[in-house]
Amino acid sequence: MTWMLQSLLSFSKNVSDISPLNLFTGLLVLAIASVIYTEKLRIPLTGYWSLVPPLFMILNPYLAQCILYSYDSLTILIAFAVALVASLQWRPAGGQQFISDVLLLVIVMVLYQSGLNVFIAGVALMIVSRVGNGQPVWHWLSGKVTALLVAVFIYKFAISMPLIPASDTYSMRHNQLLMPGSGALDVLTGSVQRYYSLFISAYPGWTAGFALIPLILGTVALGVVVCRLHQRRPHNAGLLLLMVISLSVAVGAVAGLSLLLAIPVFAPRMLAAWGVTVLFCFFISVQAWPALRHWLA
């Protein structure tokens, strides 16, 4: 997939250094996907304020490392863009939507596997959006989860295992899933600690407020929205619980499926889902305090 993209951009069968065209193209695709995604959220912002939500992804501090690569910036940024699109619903629930989801997620993995983290965060945010708009959730969510599992299975057993040569030690080393066992918990715990250390390294000292304030606002706002929904729909305890869990999923998606690797890669670009997580906190805050939406923006 990388070779195909490079060939299209350079009009050549050889991989040539055509930077910064890779970066500009990747950013353009991600910007378009971010706009499409935020439009689907129906955030009640007007005028120039409506330009704010897509910037949560584009101005994500963990996206900075991705744009340093002459070649990989294109594939990484497109993977994130496709992951955002895959978390949406384009067709009525059914076979066509499921097949398109699987294909999009396979594309994400052949471009950059950690794009699945962005997909998970995107789905978590869409849960809150769909519940708030009174759209069906459970059938849609089951379709997304099943598509993710099928896509991972296809990539793992039909693409990566047959095609990755044994001489590619890097891919072989970082393509192994964490198998259940006595040492699995230690690996998982160590990965969480290292990802956490990597995360806070972007916010030293007082700048930690840029990470804590959105999370605090999002948590309080989620409580407010859940209480309001409980008053209007007292019998939908399952949906309310799903909304509460969705914030934890959006936060956990920052490291996401990267934690399931036996030998994870610890690099800032693995944490790109943070942009969607902050967007989650912004979206739920606007729902909780609509009178303050311009101030929040």
Task: Report what the structure shows.
This protein has 13 helices and no strands. The protein is mostly helical. The two termini are 37 Å apart. Helix 4 (72-86) packs parallel to helix 6. The longest helix has 26 residues, at 138-163.
Integer-rounded radius of gyration:
19 Å
Helix count, per DSSP? Answer: 13
For the termini, the CA-CA separation is 37 Å
The percentage of residues in β strands lies in: under 5%
Low-pLDDT residue spans: none
Judged by helices, strands and strand pairing, the structural class is: mainly alpha
For the record, the count of structural domains works out to 1
Sketch the topology as an H/E string, one letter per element: HHHHHHHHHHHHH
What's the average pLDDT?
A: 88
Quick take:
This protein is an all-alpha fold and 297 residues long.
